[in-house]
Write a structure and sequence with these properties.
mainly beta, 6 strands, globular, Thrombin, subunit H, 0% helix, single chain, 6-stranded antiparallel beta barrel
Amino acid sequence: MEKRKFARLAMHADTNIKLNNVIYSGTVRDLSMKGAFVMTNASVPIDRMVEVTIYTSSTPNLLCDLQAKVVRSTEYGIGLEFEKTVLD
């Protein structure tokens, strides 16, 4: 059964994940209004809070800067749930 409330948009955007003042790079694979999956080599435990900065793929401009909780961790990356968005 599908638990998502919002559709996911496939994309390819650079991102930085900040945890304990360490910045890890990654690539957003898909994005929704409430979360994202980031392909990264960073090993981040589930339930940890991180800062997420997403950049547009065509320019180095900032797309968004959010707080998120890690809700899934795989060998390919991490699933994030945004803590607060413009919808809240």
